[in-house]
From TrEMBL:
Protein name as catalogued: Class I SAM-dependent methyltransferase
UniProt keyword annotation of Transferase present: yes
Gene3D superfamilies (alphabetical): Vaccinia Virus protein VP39
Organism of derivation: Actinoallomurus liliacearum
Coiled coil: none
Gene Ontology process terms (BP): methylation
Transport found in the keyword field: no
Gene Ontology MF: a single term: methyltransferase activity
Length: 247
């Protein structure tokens, strides 16, 4: 499901996404002349880093959120001649073919239909193209989920924290080979109080807050934070690399 994000607050936070982005980029083999599809580019932090690695190449930046893309447009205003931006739902067929590589950070756990997602990305790539990604995986934010369940009385259904083996199977079924998948625990510690609450509000609990009146957001976030033993988000990353079959 596509939802909007508070892009300005998102960029102001000490995001562990920065290291996830760097780590994922390190796994992407590039010569510098490729056209790279970035799936869920957000505000363009990794798009900017990708452009540095692609002096003769381009980025096709796809995201569902208009506000995130507005921020990307501002950030990369002087380099937009090398960026094709698409506001699009990754679960719908993408208007892209022949890309040389695909890259994604912290996006796929927001999407339930991974079979459709991987098939759409495979169709956007040329044969042999690498695909590297990071997202929340099995066991991700288990303590936050437990805190949420305590506050709301129900299990959160928002995310899709897939396991390693099911992801391998899905990638192979979608036409990828040379699949490598790992689950990597990587907790993020925030400052207690305002910073932690702002982080939970903007990065973690947006989908739950969308269902509540704005006047109730602060109390809801504080109730969830109060159920956590420390200001830590217990992330477990699903990291994978694969290659589009064919040559
Ligand atoms: C946590 S942000 C990550 C953004 C960026 N990759 C980063 O690391 O900062 C998740 C992004 O995924 C996008 N997203 C989630 N579901 C999507 C979908 N079905 N289609 C397109 N974009 C989606 C959101 O709009 C958001 O920008």
């Amino acid at each position: 499901m596509i939802r909007e994000w508070d892009a300005a607050t998102y960029d102001s936070l000490p995001l562990p996404h920065l290291r996830w982005g760097r780590r994922t980029l390190e796994r992407l083999p590039l010569t510098g002349a490729e056209t790279v599809l970035e799936a869920g580019c957000g505000t363009g932090r990794d798009t900017e880093a990708l452009l540095e690695l692609l002096p003769r190449g381009r980025v096709i930046a796809v995201d569902g959120s208009a506000r995130m893309l507005d921020r990307l447009r501002d950030r990369l205003a002087d380099r937009l001649d090398r960026v094709d931006m698409h506001q699009a739902d990754l679960t719908r067929p993408l208007p892209i073919t022949g890309a040389d590589a695909a890259f994604s950070v912290a996006t796929f756990h927001w999407i339930h239909e991974h079979d459709t997602l991987f098939a759409n990305i495979a169709r956007a790539l040329r044969p042999g193209a690498p695909f590297v990604a990071d997202c929340g995986g099995h066991g991700n934010v288990a303590r936050v989920r437990a805190a949420l369940a305590k506050v709301t009385g129900e299990e959160p259904q928002t995310w899709n924290f897939a396991g390693a083996e099911e992801t391998r199977r899905r990638l192979e079924a979608a036409g990828f080979t040379d699949v490598e998948v790992a689950l990597v625990p990587d907790p993020a510690r925030l400052e207690a109080g305002e910073q932690f609450e702002s982080y939970l509000t903007t990065v973690v609990l947006g989908a739950q807050l969308d269902r509540l009146p704005a006047a109730e957001h602060r109390d809801f976030v504080r109730a969830v934070a109060a159920e956590l033993p420390e200001p830590v988000v217990d992330y477990v990353r699903l990291e994978f690399s694969a290659r589009r079959a064919g040559s």
